[in-house]
Amino acid sequence: MIRDPASPRRRRFLRGITGLAAASLLSPGVALQQTIRTRGVPVSDEQVPVIGMGTSQTFDVGDDPKLVTARAQVLKTFFDMGGGMVDSSPMYNSSEQVIGECRGILGDDAGLFSATKVWTPGRWLGVKQMQRSQHLWGVSRLDLMQIHNMLDWETHLETLKAWKADGKIRYIGITTSHGRRHEALAAALERENFDFVQFTYNILDREAEQRLLPLAAERGVAVIINRPFRRGDLFDHVRDKPLPTWAGEFDCANWAQFFLKFIVSHPAVTVAIPATTRVDHMRENMGAGFGRLPEPAMRQRMIRHMKAIWST
Prior knowledge:
The protein has eleven helices and ten strands. By secondary structure, it is an alpha/beta fold. Strands 3-4-5-6-7-8-9-10 form an eight-stranded parallel sheet. A two-stranded antiparallel ribbon has the order 1-2.
């Protein structure tokens, strides 16, 4: 069975209710927006919900019907709470297949923003892989195709440009993770016109603030943030630690929202893509898309608070 990376370590404060209701309970008298917060894609101004969903590890459940049904409920909760972007990759084994099966179970998912990747060397193999991804997802057109971890990126970029011109995909992106290859990624962004870029950023891993985030803003590139919880490690740091009372000042109900609101409050960030196997955790994650976001001074307070926790 695939384990939610954060599952055994995660603090749940208001389990079983929506993130919007949770924030409302913690912030009485504050009128929250009734729909999830969105950010515009710079190249088109299309509005994308700021909390998306990743599928690395969590949706790699093969043909197990029980686990596929459970993932369908996670996906249903995501859409019910206003989610849009679902991110995957051929690298994630059966995840794309499971997404397609979940879509078949759920039926209408008009809000889906499909984002996957090409992850293979060579043009011919890349084309075949992308065609297979479209088939597995069961969509007539994929919204975003990204070059995964910059693998043979110059070759694939030419194909993606042609696919976009032909209407086979809507957006082109490029990714990296783990804080690796930031210099190479920055050079690619400076040289070519991408619609999206994806990399790691969280309250602990903030290297992207130095160059990638400002560069994306300057170049008009939408930003997807992966590993927002550092694969669950951030929850280890706050195990048995109470959420600070002042978190209510930005309508934060739990640690998951604390970490996610820090990320999406950065003006250059378009969407964060936490992954989970559990409906209750999905509700917590999606709650970060509602209510107020921390202002710059509050973001610094959040950083100081976490540094104090890490030092103990």
